[in-house]
Structures are given as C-alpha cells and as structure tokens.
Amino acid sequence: MIATGVINRAVVKEGKPYPPVSLEELEILDGVRPALESLRQSGFLLFVVTNQPDVVRGTQTQEAVERIHAFLLKELALDDIFTCYHDKQFPCPCRKPQPGLLLQAAERYNVDLLASYMIGDRWKDVAAGQAAGCTSIFIDYHYAEQRPEPPFTIAHSLLDSLRYISG
What's the CATH fold of domain 4-165? Predict the structure, then answer.
C-alpha cells in the first residue's frame, strides 16, 4: 500500500502537504517508476490509499481527483487506488489513520496484510498501516505536522524503501 505523497510531489503550503488540484499540477517523483516496476517484478500487488477531504470541503472536485487517479493507473505499475473523500469532522473507518482502505484492498484482492507494507509520508499513513498489521515505512519529508508513533522504518523515497522490503 502506498500513500499518494509517496508517488507524486505534494504541494506544500506553510509546511503542510496538499494534493495536486489538477493533472497539470501533478508531478511524479523521481525514482517512482523504477521502484514500482521492481516491486511488481518481485510479485507485489501495488495499491494507493489516499484521503481526499478537499472534495467534501469544496476546494477540489471528485472529477479532478478521479482524472488524476486514472492518469496514475495508466502511467504507473499500480493495481488499484482506494480513496476516502470524508473529512475529519465526519469520522469513518476508511479515513486514515483508520485502516479501512487497507482492509478494503486486502478483501478485494485477497492480500495478507501481515505480509504487506504500507509506505507513507504522513503519520496517518503509518498509523493506518500499523492498525492493519502491515510493516510501515515512513518517507520523511519533514512536514510541519505530527510525527508517527513507532514502530516504523524511515526511508528517503519510495526507491530507497526497496532496501527494507527486499531484505
């Protein structure tokens, strides 16, 4: 499982990450394509799990998010994208740090979460992975927000995280 900020550059405002609002703003990070291909060749299924609360907040459209996701599915070695459109004011089991999106992916694709990895760039990603029983890898971009609670491994990029996954 991979969080969106791990495959594309987040738009950082005042130290906090935000998703791109359009395909024009989307930038795939260096090393993502070869990292995903390497994981795929190693037999991993690859899912993105993402919170997109800006839709319910009215600062983003669901159509724009779905266009970005369709592009990512077409351009990258991804199997599926699981999205939560809820905001924190409306708690739900799919909004990270809850593990709902990971549980959905595991059920749909018959995935053993205890043998899976969650790679994320925010504390919520790590917490969701931990709650689902995954091994969590934290890509630390030094955002001005809460840090994850151990246990987790720190990597510098998705490509760098391969050294922990491949042993």
Answer: Rossmann fold (3.40.50)
